[in-house]
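Reopening this one. Same input as before:
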Amino acid sequence: MMRSLQEVDAVVECAKLHTDDLCKETQAIFFHSELDNESIKLMELEPNLLEYLEEGNSLIIRGEMLDHAVVCTDSETFELKKAETSNSLLLLPELSLGYAEEDPSAERTVSAKPVSAVLHHYFELRPCKPRLRRLQTLLAEAPYRGKLYESESEDIRKLTFEEMLSSVQASEKETRAELKVLQACYIDGYYRTLDFDYMSSVLSKVLSFIEENSWDCRRVPSRETLDVLQELEPREVLQHCLDCFAEQSSSTPTGGGGGGDTEDAEIFYRLDEDKICRFFAEELLRPTRNFNFKEFLLTWQQAVPEGFSTSLDQIQGLALIDRTSRPEVIKYFPASELPEDLSKRLAALFKAKEKWTFEEIKPYIE
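Same output, byte for byte:
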């Protein structure tokens, strides 16, 4: 029922206030006959996230039906938590906050403002690590094994980047970074990991070609490498192999001078000794799971390209050395196969080994 101005004045007098100190418009709040407490949810935001929205960006809720939902910006991931409050939160869409200047000579008025919803909880956002294990699982469903095997994989589920984003609980930036960590290759519109044996074959071709030409491993010309080897493997796969196991070191205009079109510049790569040595170590350890430690060290050094030096630092997070056994053995134990949940991961670590030094366990919990 609408209040009259006289009723408002009576309330103001009981509150020991003066009408001259109040706004000209008095807003009488009443509960709507049909409260809608389900269709609207409240979310508490930190100032930086509010500013992010006000700049025209979006917050995206990601997760499948049985997941605990997360909220993502374009670069961060937040856990979505439901918070209870003992106070009733009243939602009044038509309420005036009284910030506008008023005409002192205006008449006092009374307007009715309906409460459309009464809520007792809201959602809050807490920064969390992106949940990326599903990305690894999805990519494992369709490994690329070379053109010869593509006809056999027509029914295999291959994913575009947009399809990955809709399933993986991580921001776009975090997902792209993880694709790089997982060494996913962009082939014919889809991101796919290379089958390990196939990657080994491609890397072997690249290293053999470098050796045949007696090139300095710190200055490998990419164009000639790709032009020649693309007769054996797809060019995008060869480029991916260079990106995984080398880094661009310099570029030189094809004309030989100081200027020239940068698009025609010859790009040189420097082989990454640590990444290549780590790959060869994994190649040795994967089939056996356990390896005599001394024999492994000898075989590993013999397997890597000439001039490269192996080091145990190169296989952190990839293998464990059991020095209590006789003879000592090294075990294939990659961090990528451990549970994503920290408590489950720690349980798996201490099941595999009772005592850890900080340096040993660090790669597995970072």
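So the earlier flakiness isn't reproducible anymore. For the record, The chain has a mean pLDDT of 89.
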